[in-house]
Amino acid sequence: MRNRLLPVLPALLLALTSRAGAAQTALQLRWELVGDSIANDHGASRAAFTLTNRDTKALAPTGWAIYYSALHGAGPGTVGGGFTIEDVIADLHRLVPAAGFAGLAPGASIRIPYLTDLLLNASFLPRGPYIVFDAAKDVGVPLQDYVAVPFERRAVTPESQFALDSAIRVIPASELPPVFPTPVEVTQGTGALHLTALPPVEAPEALRNEAAFAAEYLRPYFGTTRKGGVLPLRLDVGPVAGQASPEAYTLVVDPVQGVRIVGASPAGVFYGLQSLRSLLPPAGPTPRAGLVVPAIRVVDAPRFGYRGFMLDVARNFHPKPVVLRTLDLLARYKLNVFHLHLTDDEGWRIELPSLPALTAVGARRGHTLDSGTHLPPAFGSGPDVDRPWGSGFYSRADYVEILRYAAARHIEVIPEIEMPGHARAAIKSMEANQQYRLNDPDDRSVYTSAQGYHDNVMNPALESTYRFIERVVGELVAMHREAGVPLRHIHMGGDEVPAGVWEGSPVVQAYLKAHNLTSVDDLWFAFYGRVEQILKTQGLLPSGWEEIAVRKTHRAGQPTNIPNPDFAARGWRAYVWNNVPGGGAEDLAYRLANGGYDVVLSPVSNLYFDLAWNQNPEETGLDWGGYVDLRKPFQFIPFDYYRNVPVDPSVFVGKDRLTDYGRAHVVGIQGNLWSETLGAEGRLEYMLLPKLFGLAERAWAPDPDWAGERDPARADSLYREGWSRFVNVLGQRELPRLDREVPGVNYRIPTPGLKVEDGVVRCSVELPGLILRYTTDGSEPTVRSALVRGPIPLRGTVRVAAFNTTGRKGHTARLTAP
Hints:
This protein is of the alpha/beta class. The strands form 8 sheets. An 8-stranded parallel β-sheet has the order 20-17-16-27-26-25-22-21.
């Protein structure tokens, strides 16, 4: 870590360092966006810090630095005010006084402008600032008096949102499909079943878990009241006519015979129970006098056997209760895989008792000089160790509980251990353990990972690397066995290994010579060949990101990736994320499937839930792969996603399409939620919901009618009707149900659309069923504000916001009279 700080004035040093543990200083820090400029192809932003000395003593001209996290650094030579901004590691930077800074008198302020990459929303702003003094370089003191001033950039205007909403037709609740996700077949019956008390659940012993689940969600409707003569809820395992899926089910509600669910397996029965829940009104805090369930017959089965969601708990940690709550959400909507990203550069989140340093070092973040006892701050986690989001891990008991909880909901947990890249947490944890060391201490390779690390890749020429992998895999297998949930699949990472790795490692050079290899690129196959052997001893097959399935080569002098035939025939599963338009890999998923790899589709264009909703600053999230709103997952056509990626279709000219053979190798789809921007309460659910509904629909239901329609006008008409049904189901039924049954659920409430016509403001909302309220006096709308019942006269500034059934408010839209 570079350090060019000079001694400070002794009196001030003693005064300030004595307060280092007090979690505050007398310094005030403000940040603001000044404006944007065109400094490169992507644009740039002009920003400024303002530092104010609230102390009674002068701030010295040297001997201290302010550290902070930000996804973008400062442009070289662009920092003013007599300061420099240095990149420390990854997203950690520091503001350092330079020769032009003369100190800061009591009460004085200094403005420090700089140029940085384009800042689009609050996720990119400096976070977690703290000060470090030269006399106590291992102590970081949070700057409590810090504010990043919000800014506006009206990229998606109220008018453009109104235009988007114009495709939506409000549908009466009585005309909406009764079950979500869309079933294979629904037949409405005659009459209704009247339940006056908790129905008895009749089920064989093999369905004890499902019977308990049914009783659990029915109990809030009736309490524990049981009466004679109430028709039973019968659960059985048996064939489902016309359906080959082991997760198929039939649900029949009969006014005379009661409710019967037959599943091809216990999982099928479970999904039938979730569909039955869709037919009931939301459960309330008090029991009801009775329930009326319409007569119906549902025959259903999923489109894909793999319906997944990945949660990254490594970058920012999410504790066990959050995971259990997320599993409940996945189960509601019939998703059956929970891919748990447990390790990365910024954190190792699973306890392995035989390797305690992994969590003692790798699960803790705070200010550090060398990552010897813990990792450095990241994503605004700040200087203090063992604080939420930055620090934390699942104990062995926690993980076993998560596995059992998921299994009871027919969800497979797939743990991911990142390697050989994205492994800094593991590497730093193991540096003092020669038996399991992961890096060569004499390695002088020069590289920079996509996230800004220079020391985050395991060394594949060390035997200790493979001893480590073997130990980790063995302990995971043992935990799954203890939970009674045998490990079936394990994800071994494989993505974003940067150019330049291993080239300066003596042990690598010796390995290349001993094995007659000509390039460090060949180590990739040696590494994963060894990994495969380790997994085979446990009866496992490798899964990983798309990079595990490709070989680097050149075409017409340009670097390119081609499917690697060596691993396809060995049962490897590739999770393909990279379809960034113009990047050259738009068809990679299809090429790999056509080449024989089992493929999980998780394209950034539609299913990366960590991407911001849109370009407006209030919508947090990343932007490197575009934007993902509710439409993107809904529009995803798994076998022909070229049709709905919002770019010039010429990008896809000459790209591979799926063959019939390739279709058989697409095992499913998965939404991914990376956690760099999730370091705050409720952010996970805000980014997850309602996007999750689109994923659930596409994973479970067949292609919608508009997906196969080749006539553009007809396809557009069918799409508008399908989209209208979808958003009406969410706004009128599914989200109000969550409001009642999942306390405090923090789904995104849509921002209204507004349009001025003939002197009045017309309003729209993406999810019909939500309530719109408005003000014209300059204040923010509240639950006491006037309801929008029609056009609003345009006087002054009209502010409109949507509210859910609990009174929670979304972002405000506004229009001002000219």
